[in-house]
UniProtKB/TrEMBL annotation:
SUPFAM superfamilies: PLP-dependent transferases (SSF53383)
Protein known as: Cystathionine beta-lyase
Reactions accelerated catalytically: L,L-cystathionine + H2O = L-homocysteine + pyruvate + NH4(+)
GO molecular function annotation: lyase activity
Family listed: Belongs to the trans-sulfuration enzymes family.
Entry keyword set: Lyase, Pyridoxal phosphate
Top-level taxon of origin: Bacteria
Gene3D superfamilies documented for this protein: Aspartate Aminotransferase, domain 1, Type I PLP-dependent aspartate aminotransferase-like (Major domain)
Required cofactor names: pyridoxal 5'-phosphate
Protein's UniProt keywords contain Lyase: yes
């Protein structure tokens, strides 16, 4: 396996996904690392117990199964260390809590995931942390928003539901001039299509519930830090007592093996449908950063290697009274698209987006925003399903 370790950094995406995070020789030749469930770990003697001079000391501090997943994520992210938490939202909140204290000021992108905003507006403010939101298109001008007590900048590229890109290198450079830690929710692209730490981000956050799992049946999040900020992250993680379960880690590891192939299909199908939707008279706008018509497409093209399977479109509704009825009619007519939250699984999903919490990056005015998760179904069938939705919406 030593030869393999030297070859993997230069290997292709799918080759790396097939081999990272495990060594069969450690497990008698079995291909997948076994599930090691643990709470209590026994020590050989009292001195070892007192000094904790042992790799594994308690279940919350990791098992061989959770370590295998963390090592795989480190290989993908290029990070110094990774911790596992029970959900994507927990990955965001633990990452923020690791680097803030009462009296601090944080900057959050205004197109952030809704539950993240709720955490910032409730828990953080109760802790005495000042929160300001910034325009996703701000680029280097974010420097004007920094205060002497600004400690964290949270980005999410592209933005949740409306998919605005952010100039991550410019934002990171400005933040570091002021000594702030840069966090990024990179769930949309995964480390296969964008590696945040290579672009100046300090801590990369990922809802592995999505594409690493790929089957809509596991909740988990990962937080990966560079060498400078890893000690603070691992200390906070252990203090809060949050950990990813071994059984879930095993499932995420298994999902990783096919993530590259699945993402290629999601990318191809979603872009094809987004391009098709641009020519539909029922559609006012398509919100997909890989489309040349999208306002911040140039940033996506410069920094990203691909796109995933989730994007939105604006359904035309000139009559304000018909905005929600048209959206509901469209959604209710769908068959292959399920109506459900989350994304990243094999099945297509649709949801009416609520953007009422935006402060700067306001909602489109031409009609309701419908978010689509394009799964692994055949494109012709998904287009036919969307056609049924349009027919129903047109009848309203």
């Amino acid at each position: 396996m030593k030869d393999l370790d030297s070859l993997l950094p230069g290997a292709g995406v799918n080759t790396r996904l097939s081999h990272i995070g495990y060594d069969p020789s450690d497990y008698h030749g079995f291909v997948n690392p076994p599930v090691v469930r643990a709470s209590t770990v026994l020590f050989p003697d009292a001195k070892s117990m007192e000094t904790r001079n042992k790799k594994y000391t308690y279940g919350t501090r990791g098992t061989p199964t959770t370590d295998a997943l963390a090592e795989a994520i480190n290989a993908l992210e290029g990070s110094a260390g990774t911790v596992l938490v029970p959900s994507g939202l927990a990955a965001v909140t633990v990452a923020i809590l690791a680097y803030v204290a009462a009296g601090d000021h944080v900057l959050i992108v205004d197109s952030v995931y809704g539950p993240t905003r709720h955490f910032c507006d409730t828990i953080l403010k109760r802790m005495g942390v000042e929160v300001d939101y910034f325009d996703p298109s701000i680029e280097a001008a974010i420097e004007t928003l920094f205060k002497p007590n600004t400690t964290v900048v949270l980005t999410e590229a592209p933005g949740s539901n409306t998919f605005e890109m952010q100039d991550i290198p410019a934002i990171a450079a400005a933040a570091h001039k002021h000594g702030a830690v840069v966090l990024m929710d990179n769930t949309w692209a995964t480390p296969l299509y964008f590696r945040p730490l290579d672009f100046g981000v300090d801590v990369s956050i990922h809802a592995s519930t999505k594409y690493p799992s790929g089957h809509s049946d596991i909740l988990m999040g990962t937080i990966s830090a560079n060498a400078e900020h890893w000690p603070r992250l691992i200390e906070t993680h252990g203090t809060l007592g949050l950990c990813g379960a071994p059984d879930d880690s095993y499932q995420i590891l298994r999902g990783l093996r096919t993530m590259g192939i699945r993402l290629e299909r999601h990318y191809e199908s979603a872009l094809a449908i987004a391009t098709w939707l641009e020519d539909r008279e029922e559609v006012a706008r398509v919100l997909h950063p890989a489309l040349p018509s999208f306002p911040s497409h140039h940033i996506w093209k410069r920094d990203f290697k691909g796109a995933s399977g989730i994007f939105s479109f604006v359904l035309k509704a000139s009559d304000p009274q018909k905005v929600k009825p048209k959206a509901h009619a469209f959604l209710d007519a769908l068959s292959y698209f399920g109506l459900g939250y989350s994304w990243g699984g094999y099945e297509s999903l649709a949801v009416l987006v609520n953007l009422s919490d935006r402060k700067i990056a306001k909602a489109p005015t031409e009609g309701p925003v419908i978010r689509l998760q394009i799964g692994l179904e055949d494109i012709v069938d998904l287009k036919a399903d969307i056609e049924r939705g349009f027919s129903a919406a047109n009848a309203v």
